[in-house]
Amino acid sequence: MDINLKKYRRLVFFLLVTLLGSSCSTSYLQFNTPKSAESRYGGLKTIAINNVVLIKAEGKKMTDNLGRWSVQNKRLDVQGIENLVRKALIANLSKFSDYQIIDLQDLRDYNGDFQTLRPPSGEILKQADFMLDLSFAVSAQEQSGSFHQVMTFSQSARSKQGRKWITTQNSSYEKVIPAPYNNSHVELVFLAEVIKIKNGEAKVLKNFNGEVQNNRSPQVPLEVMANELAVAVTSQILKNISKYSVIVKREIHKGSNSEVIELLESADLEAAKLKLESILSENKGKEPFDLYNLGICYEALGLPGIALQYYYEAHALNEENELYISAIGDLE
């Protein structure tokens, strides 16, 4: 695909990322989708969701033994992911657009005779202004192993001689030790086709593609990460067919350290995300406010599925916090 996550992230600079309340103790991030409405969707009121098809799913397990790699194929169990994408897409369209929605899969379930619905035929399709077809592929890999790390060890000793303390030993040495690591990476690429329907006849209105990625360290089950992307990809699709932009405002939790707060208040989302991920990976006890603020980063970067997972984790640690409850309610 010629659209990758880095390219998508550059679109973030076109987001309306506004800092409010700078003169008081409460700060907010306000952001919207990175594209304005397209004139081609003017006058369209009803969308039919047609085919949502997983064309490929593959996984690999990569093991690094101090630079000696071994690679094995890994079964990726993503049964039901097509339905998850479809339901998430319909939910987002219902919440963030004013389209009337027809789910053609529901019609197929009710009527087994409708094995395939094509735009030129079917009374139901005559009620739709345009139709969406979506195909996607999922690839995933687990990496684990160890690498050589140089550690410095020091030793010192002091003794009292008369009234003074004298250093009697001061030495250091380096030692190479194996350091373990593990991480997971999942990528979902998609191709969408928007078909305009008029008087029962079909005409391609727009084709677009895209890609979303999910990286975790330490490892998270690949299937969980794939399902997160299945939800996240619907945000990219919505931006390409929406008639208007959706504005979101999130309050920044001041519980995180000052560096994180400063990065969030300056809307440096990538740096804030990396800092929070580092903090959460280093500390054994996760703080709910760090999980929540990390969720804000992912939501503002166009990955609401991942953001929702972090909001859930924050809520599990503090079920009474209204910020966590509100964020979950907005994305569910």
Structural account:
Strand 3 (46-65) and strand 4 (68-74) form a beta hairpin. Helix 2 packs parallel to helix 5 (222-241), helix 5 crosses helix 9 (304-317) and helix 6 (258-265) runs antiparallel to helix 7 (269-282). The model is unreliable at 1-24 and 113-122 (pLDDT under 50). This protein has helices at residues 5-10, 81-96, 104-110, 123-126, 222-241, 258-265, 269-282, 288-300, 304-317, 322-331, and strands at 18-20, 28-32, 46-65, 68-74, 100-103, 130-161, 164-198, 201-216, 247-251. Strands 3, 4, 5, 6, 7 and 8 form a six-stranded mixed sheet that branches. A three-stranded antiparallel sheet has the order 1-2-9, with no helix packed on it. The protein has ten helices and nine strands. Among the domains are: 40-110 and 125-142 and 183-243, Double Stranded RNA Binding Domain, CATH 3.30.160; 252-331, Serine Threonine Protein Phosphatase 5, Tetratricopeptide repeat, CATH 1.25.40. The protein has 332 residues and is of the alpha+beta class.
